[in-house]
Amino acid sequence: MSFTHEIKSNRLLEDEITDNFHDISPPLTDKQVLIESERCLFCYDAPCINACPTDIDVPLFIRKINTENYHGAAKEILEKNILGGSCARVCPTETLCQQACVRNTEHDEPVAIGKLQRFAVDHLDTTQPYPFDRAASTGKHVAIVGAGPAGLSCAHRLARDGHKVTIYEAAAKSGGLNEYGIALYKLVDDYAQKEIDFVLQIGGIDIKYQHALGKDVNLNQLRENHDAVFLSIGMGNVNALNIPGEQYPNVEDAVAYVSELRQTNNLASLAVGKNIIVIGAGMTAIDIAVQSKKLGAENVTIVYRRNQSAMGASEHEQELAYKNGVSFVFNAQPKQIVGDENGISTMEFIRTQQSSNGKLQCKDEIISMPCDVVFKAIGQQLDSSPFGNDNPPALDQRGRIAVNEQFQTSLDKVFAGGDCINGKDLVVEAVDHGNKAALAIHQQLQQD
């Protein structure tokens, strides 16, 4: 990062930082699992199933847990979601399956579905044969661009159907968001890579690392050399603030810093500011704010131009930020960052209010906040430059790759899924995209 040397002050001791980044949600004990699984009512037509993007049969796997058939429970989960272990850890279950739970009432709490799912997947019996068989070879070869959750789930499903798969990954590791973008305290002990090792045990999947689309390989080549292509390239461009002072040192991309944090072998070596401002309202804003506090930042403030009810981050994530000492300022729009080539000192905001028609209006009020680091966490955009100008896939109104119900793009036999298409930008949703795209690709290849 481009932090100046003055930023490396106010540091916690190395042992303190290590303790701060332990698993934020430790696994349930055997006794806790028994008690929690007995709370499930095993509903007919259970609403939690409909709330899960990958349609996991929640009551069925919980019933298997309750009868101590942990291996069977894990297989039930992985059949629908091959990345069920990471999804159990990072999914906003409080707004998905657990929100839909019939026990989620004023006088009760939902069943801890996410923690039960984690327990089940963690107790898959690895001494038994791999739980999925690979069909006889079809002779078909599919290219996948991007080894994130969508690409990995698509690859696994296609491999099960007997197709050969080659994944072209721009980075040095697989995992996408799980490896580079999730808060470290949510996926500890190199879990993303362990999960990928499990995925690849199906066979028939080859990964070419540091093969970037538009640089090391282009879309036309992939279409010529493969029977189908699946694009799962994520969102490569970070939105800009477009205000004076954004160019100064220590005005940083939150996504890039989270990536650096996850890849470092020594958390104590990371630069951390004393007074940090985070601009944004989603999960990334929460992640960078909380991690900054855990690294030893003295003051961390999330600033959002709208009110709290409009935040993209869930109430659970907001509460996590409060518990870690993060402050919030609402209805404040960035105006300028004050500083020079040596760093920054303050950031100015214009107070806002929402008009009767829902539009945001600026008030005649300026507030100023001290800062030595500003993190931008205001969303990302698709980087379409790797496609070049030679017959790229069509984009939708949001600037993402347009697909139909079968996840096919405007190009013949080119499909897409994950964050690069319109959606909620969730890991579990990306897995669902990969599964459904693989089914569509398989059906099309069978007709050839």
Per-chain topology:
Blueprint: H1 14-20, H2 30-38, H3 47-51, H4 58-66, H5 70-80, H6 84-90, H7 97-100, H8 113-122, E1 141-145, H9 149-160, E2 164-169, H10 177-180, H11 191-200, E3 205-209, H12 219-225, E4 228-231, E5 237-238, E6 251-253, H13 254-263, E7 275-280, H14 283-295, E8 299-303, H15 315-323, E9 327-329, E10 332-340, E11 343-354, E12 360-370, E13 373-377, E14 380-381, E15 414-416, H16 427-447
Parallel strand pairs: 1-2, 1-4, 2-3, 4-15, 6-13, 7-8, 7-13, 8-9
Antiparallel strand pairs: 5-14, 10-11, 11-12
In short:
By secondary structure, the protein is α/β, with parallel strands linked by helices.
Please provide a written account of the structure:
The protein has 448 residues and is α/β, with parallel strands linked by helices. It has three domains: 5-21 and 238-380, 3-Layer(bba) Sandwich (FAD/NAD(P)-binding domain); 39-122, Alpha-helical ferredoxin (Fumarate Reductase Iron-sulfur Protein, Chain B, domain 2); 141-236 and 382-447, FAD/NAD(P)-binding domain, CATH 3.50.50.60. 33% of the residues lie in helices and 18% in strands. The protein contains 16 helices and 15 strands. The strands form four sheets. A five-stranded parallel sheet has the order 3-2-1-4-15, with helices on both faces. A five-stranded parallel sheet has the order 6-13-7-8-9. A three-stranded antiparallel sheet has the order 10-11-12, with no helix packed on it. β7 (275-280), α14 and β8 (299-303) form a beta-alpha-beta unit. α2 packs across α4 (58-66), α4 (58-66) packs antiparallel against α5 (70-80) and α4 (58-66) packs across α8. The longest helix has 21 residues, at 427-447. The mean pLDDT is 95.
